[in-house]
Every structure is written in structure tokens, then in C-alpha cells.
TrEMBL record:
Enzymatic reactions: L-threonylcarbamoyladenylate + adenosine(37) in tRNA = N(6)-L-threonylcarbamoyladenosine(37) in tRNA + AMP + H(+)
Designated name of the protein: tRNA N6-adenosine threonylcarbamoyltransferase
Residues in Gcp-like domain copies: 25-313
Binding, Fe cation: 112, 116, 307
One protein family per Pfam: TsaD
Native source organism of the sequence: Lutibacter litoralis
Main location: cytoplasm
Keyword terms of this UniProt record: Acyltransferase, Cytoplasm, Iron, Metal-binding, Transferase, tRNA processing
SUPFAM superfamilies, per the entry: Actin-like ATPase domain
Amino acid sequence: NKSIYILGIESSCDDTSAAVICNGKILSNVVANQEIHTKYGGVVPELASRAHQQNIVPVIQQAIQQANIDKKDLNAIAFTRGPGLMGSLLVGTSFAKSLSLALNIPLIAVNHMQGHVLAHFIDEENQQKPPFPFLCLTISGGHTQIVKITDYFTMEVIGETLDDAVGEAFDKSAKILGLPYPGGPLVDKYAKLGNPLAFKFTKPKMADLNFSFSGLKTGILYFIQKKVKENPNFIEENLNDICASIQYTIVEILFDKLKKAVEKTGINHVAIAGGVSANSEIRKVLKETEHKYGWTTYIPKFEYTTDNAGMIAITGYLKYLDNNFSKDTIIATARLKV
Ligand code: KG4
Ligand code: ZN
């Protein structure tokens, strides 16, 4: 029963993160958020790469220190190969390669979207792991997917967004309301105090298991512009109700499709993953499906929802056990399918 230590490195977007995992248990998971993007209302790729460059050494040092191990104890380095912003991915990829060379240990490339899903296999007390096959609604700032997972490394996207991701729908709605980036968590916060049925927004009519969120965003924009014309204080006076109504509509869109996916596949083990799975209403509604429809649900701990290296480290560990290593000539890829 040898202890296997894997270092995970995540740098696909605007969070620099490093984690150490030992036989499936997280020993450390350090995340440096990049404040810089707030004032631009979104992630500026050039600035993100620079901040990664600046943060990566201290973040990794901190992760190793918190894990209370020595660099020389590490058995492999797992890193996010894609999808994501090229300039951001390059920082983590190059760093991982150099460290694997310096420590003379293998390199393991990880798909970020697989990482979000496999975060469910991190050993945690009171946290059930989903059995195969299961469905996962992976929702983030860049993706909206319903994935069918047959084993750790066999995943099939059975539905996805054809335009904006659900995280973008949250963030862009928040921006229309004058809230800072990323607005998703703020919409969640104000929605708690509002009436979800105060305003009605049109849901898209999409075939199959696919999603569309760009029409909703436009609908919200026109609605707010019209209301503000009538009453310049409309947003301030109704912020909680507006947020609750937007969130209600998004949650309905997601669960309409998730229900369809369960019916179509006959699989009723359902997980959520990705940054938007931190949303309190989504977590609540998913939990309710247990007695409502008899689903078994899997909700990740908060720290493993938004981008973090813990999910990269667990994927690295599973790949390590599978002897699935990468060549030292591997390159980052902005577009990478699950
Ligand atoms: O997975 P993630 O950290 O990064 C990507 O891979 O995109 O997801 C970030 C997204 C952002 O759009 C953010 O607004 C959203 O997750 N998010 C939330 C909540 N927490 C984070 N959206 C709604 N409610 C939340 N509580
Ligand atoms: Zn992500």
C-alpha cells in the first residue's frame, strides 16, 4: 500500500491553482484568484497569462508546503492541457513539463472538463461517489454539457450549448444589472431575497438535449432597457426580484433538459459539476429530484466546483493508476473535446 503523491496544476482560465493528492485524498488545494479582471467586466486573456506567470511558483510552493511533503516525494505531475485560453494553458503546461524534467517524474495531461466531472471521485468524508454509468451536468463559464460517464475515461457529451454557456448567461445578466464580474455568485445571493415569479423571461425552444442561452440574455437586456426608460431606479428597486426571476428561468432551462436526458438514457444517477454548480438554487433543485423523481444525486463540495487543481490532481491520480502518461512533447490545446 504505497502512497502515491500527485501534484495537480490548473491554469486554463483566470485562476492559478495547485493541489497535492495522496491516494485520492486531497492534502492541499491552493487557488489564487485574479482580481485584475473585475474592473474590465470579464477575463482579459493577456492579463490572465501574466498573472499566471506571476502566481504559479508561489501557488505551487504553497501547495507542497501545506501538503507537508517534499517535492522529491511526488510521483507525477498532472496539468490542464485544455480546453481554455491558450496563453493561460501555456503557463501551466510549460511549468509542469519543466518540473517533471527537474524531478525526473512522469507528466500526465488532463482535460479540464473531465477534471470537473472526476472531482466527484476525490475521497471526502460524507461524500458519495457516483456509480457508473451516471450523468453529469457540467456547467461553467465556458461550458454547458450533459455528459454520460461510462467509466473514468469514457465520457460522451449527449447535450450541450450551441451558443453561450450558462455561466455566461449568469455573468452577462449580472453585467446588464451593473454588477461586477463574475456576477454569477451575486445573482445567486440577491435571488435568495427575491420572488422568482416576479418577472417572466422567455425560455428557448431547443430540440434534443441541447441548450441555448444567447436569446435569454438578449431578452433580459431589452426588458431591463425598457423598464429603466420608464423608471430610472427600476434595477435598484427590484434587484432581488430580477435576480430571482433570471435564476429561476435558467434553472428551469437546465432541469427541463436534465429530465429529458434521464428519460432518454434511463440513467438516474445524476451529478453536477463546474463553477455554476456552486449555485445554491441548482443544488437545492437537484436534491429535490431525489424524492420527486427517484434520482440519486451527487453534489460536489464547494471548493471543487469552480476551477481548482484538486480536480486535476484526482484525474491525474486515476490516470496514474491506469498507466496513462503523456510524452514530454505534449502541447496545450485551446479546444479539446471531452
Ligand atoms: O468552472 P469555473 O470556475 O470556470 C470555467 O471553467 O469557466 O466557472 C466559473 C463560472 C462563472 O461564470 C461564475 O459566475 C459561475 O461559474 N458561478 C456561479 C456561482 N458561482 C460561480 N454562477 C451562479 N451561481 C453561483 N453561485
Ligand atoms: Zn472550469
